Amino acid sequence: MRVLLSAEEIAERVEALADGFAGQVDDGWTVVALLQGAIPFAADLMRAIERRGRHPIYDSLWLESYHDARESSGKVVVRADISRAIEGRPALIVDDVFDSGRTIAYARAHLMAKGATRTLACAFVRKPQAMGEAIDAIGWDAPNDFLVGYGMDDAGRYRGLPYIAALD
Ligand SMILES: O=P(O)(O)OC[C@H]1O[C@H](OP(=O)(O)OP(=O)(O)O)[C@H](O)[C@@H]1O
Ligand code: HPA
């Protein structure tokens, strides 16, 4: 395992993202974390947003397309839907990694179909193949490795690593 981004570097980037969102994401917004990978990043980002005096609603949407594989199945499945109405509200979608771009595109369409007024999307990591795909903010542009840590897994393992590493 090669460490590519330390816990300290992650924390700095989360604060910068929260600074960027604090002017926009107010109490009328819903932050939607995409389970399972978004959990560490969404927890850090929510706390950073709340420290800036903003108190959006927090919700989760469980989407799955990789399961235990290292390549996307190409099909996004909803394992569990959001728990509150999104109709008439803007949503900030939060995910760990933006790779093919399929998961976030699916989440945007899903929330808009439920009546969200608009979506912003943010992933902590962007992989090279997602360059050029639509996203509103990212924390870090990663090299083309299979990554683990800070929510990213290999068949369910390593999500809790406080740093991001490449699996060789
Ligand atoms: O841009 P994409 O190619 O769609 O890849 C990104 C998605 O892949 C992972 O989800 P996964 O399906 O592995 O579920 P998980 O969140 O439970 O790990 C990750 O958490 C992102 O949601
Ligand atoms: O590099 C990755 N690591 C873990 N999960 C992922 N889902 C998409 N890309 C990745």
From TrEMBL:
<protein>
    <submittedName>
        <fullName>Hypoxanthine-guanine phosphoribosyltransferase</fullName>
        <ecNumber>2.4.2.8</ecNumber>
    </submittedName>
</protein>
<dbReference type="GO" id="GO:0032263">
    <property type="term" value="P:GMP salvage"/>
</dbReference>
<dbReference type="GO" id="GO:0004422">
    <property type="term" value="F:hypoxanthine phosphoribosyltransferase activity"/>
</dbReference>
<keyword id="KW-0808">Transferase</keyword>
<dbReference type="GO" id="GO:0005829">
    <property type="term" value="C:cytosol"/>
</dbReference>
<dbReference type="InterPro" id="IPR050408">
    <property type="entry name" value="HGPRT"/>
</dbReference>
<dbReference type="Pfam" id="PF00156">
    <property type="entry name" value="Pribosyltran"/>
</dbReference>
<dbReference type="GO" id="GO:0046100">
    <property type="term" value="P:hypoxanthine metabolic process"/>
</dbReference>
<dbReference type="GO" id="GO:0006178">
    <property type="term" value="P:guanine salvage"/>
</dbReference>
<dbReference type="GO" id="GO:0000287">
    <property type="term" value="F:magnesium ion binding"/>
</dbReference>
<dbReference type="InterPro" id="IPR000836">
    <property type="entry name" value="PRTase_dom"/>
</dbReference>
<feature type="domain" description="Phosphoribosyltransferase">
    <location>
        <begin position="9"/>
        <end position="131"/>
    </location>
</feature>
<keyword id="KW-0328">Glycosyltransferase</keyword>
<dbReference type="GO" id="GO:0032264">
    <property type="term" value="P:IMP salvage"/>
</dbReference>
<dbReference type="InterPro" id="IPR029057">
    <property type="entry name" value="PRTase-like"/>
</dbReference>
